[in-house]
What we know:
The complex is a heterodimer. By secondary structure, chain A is of the alpha/beta class. Chain A has seven helices and twelve strands.
Amino acid sequence: MKWAILSGLVGNLTAYEAVLQDVQQHQVDELYILGDLVGPNATSEALVKRLQNPRKGEPTPQICTGWWEEQCLILHAYGQKPEPTALIEKYGAEMVKTLWDAVSRETVTWIRSLEFGFMELDCLLTHGSSVSVADDLRPDTSPLVMCDRLGRLDANYLFCGRSGLQFNYQIADGSSTSTVITLNGATPTTTMETSNKFVVGVGNVGLTPNLASYTVYSPASGQVNFKQVSYGFGKGFGNRKAS
Amino acid sequence: MKIAVMSCIHGNYEALNAVLSDIDDHKAEQIFCLGDLVGYGPHPNAVVEMIRSLDIPTCQGCWDEDIVEGLNACDCSYPSLLAESRGKAAHAWTDQQIHPETREYLAQLPLTIKEKNMSFVHGSPNGQHEYLLPDVNAFTALERVLSTGSNVLFCGHTHVPYVRTLDQTKMLVKVEQQGQKDAHYQFTPSVRRIVNAGSVGEPRHGRPHATYVLYDTDDQLVTIREIEYDYQKTCADIIEKGLPPIFAWRLAQGLEFAERADDPSHVCER
C-alpha cells in the first residue's frame, strides 16, 4: 500500500497537474491533500474544479482544510473566528478583498464540507497539527511539542503541510521521570518512555515556482519518500529528485 | 522569598479568610491567585472585593471567564449532564448576583502571570479549561511548563493540590530534511516542576478543608497547606441563598462531583 500526500497547492493548477502525473507513476492507493488548495489568485477556482472532478483512472483525492481555506471560511462568516485577523497580520488588509474575489461563495460552501484531517491506521494527516491548521511544525520544533501534537490523537505518525518543507522528524527514543507529592505524601517515582514517533513535513506543490514537492508513504514498511517534480516551460514534467 | 499561591476560591468567603490568616501566620511576602474567584459559592462579590483590596495578582479562571463572556465560553467543565445542569444553575445565580464592578474586574484579569522563573495560570498555559492532572503524560506536562519559559508552573482548576517534579528527561531526535544534512541530537531539559495550588473554596481531596501552597523561591521548597475553617457556615449560606443544595453537600465532603457516576461517559463538545 502506498499513499501520496500533498499540500500547499495554493491554486497552482500547473504544478498540480505535474504532480498528478508523477503520482500516477508510483501506483499509489490513496491520494491525500492536506489543505491550502486555494490561494489569492485567479486559478484557485479552476484547481478546485479539477480536484472535484478527477479523470478516469486518477485517484480520488481525500482533502482536508488548510490555512487558506480557514481564511476563506472566516471571510464568509463560517469560521470559528469573527475577524480575519491572522490574514491581515500576515498579508495586510488588501488581502481580504483579493481572497474574497479569488474564491467564490460556492467554493467556500464546498470547503465547509472538508475534514480537519484524517486518522488512518496510526497516522494523523492534517494541514497544521492536531491543535490547528495554523500550527507550523518545522524541523527545529521542540520534540516535546511534537510529542504533544502526536499524543493528542495517540498517533505514531503526523503528516503535515503547514511549513511547506519536506522533512522527516523522528523521536527515536525518550524518557522522563516524574515524582508527585500530594497531601497524602509522595507517590512512587515513575518513568515514562516513548520511541519511534514521526512528524513528516510533506512539502508543497504550488508555492515554489517550477518545483513541486510531495511525499509518498508506505504504511506497511514505514518508508517515507520525498518527491520533487520540475514543471513549467523548459522544465519538463519529470521527477527531479527522489530519496 | 516566601510566596503563597491559591486558587479556586469559588465565592467561599469563610475559606478565603482562613487561608489569608494562615498565609499571614507564615509570613509570606507575596500572594498570587490563580482565578475562579466566583461560581458555586454564596459570596462572589465579597471574595472579589477582598482580592482587589489586597491587590493580589490574579489570573482569570474558567468561571471568571464564563461570567464575563457567557457560559458558552466554557470548553467543557462538567463530567456529567447532571453536573452540567447544576453548574448552569450556579452560573445563572452568580450572573444575577455579581456587581458590575466585579464583572469588570474579572474581565480584565490576565490569563498568565510571569514572575522571574515562575509562571501562574488557572488551568494550563493552553487555557483556563485544560486540566493538568498529576498523571498527565510526562512529556505533555513538560511541554506545558517549557511553553511558559519558566522552571515552575503554578496551576489550579483540578481542586486537588500536588507537586510534580519532572526530571532526567532525555529525547533522541533525528531529522532528515530535503537539501539539508541529517541532524541527530539529544534534548535534555533541566528539572521542571508543576505545582497545583488545590482549592480554597471548593476542595475535592476528600476533606472539607481549604488548600493552598507556600513556595520558597530560595530553596524551592513547596509546602501544601490544608486549613480547617467553619465550612458549615458556608454550607448554610449556600442553602440560604437558594443555590443547589448539592454544592453544600459536596463542600462538606470535599468531594469532586457527587453525581459523577450518573453519566461518566459524557464529554461536552460545546
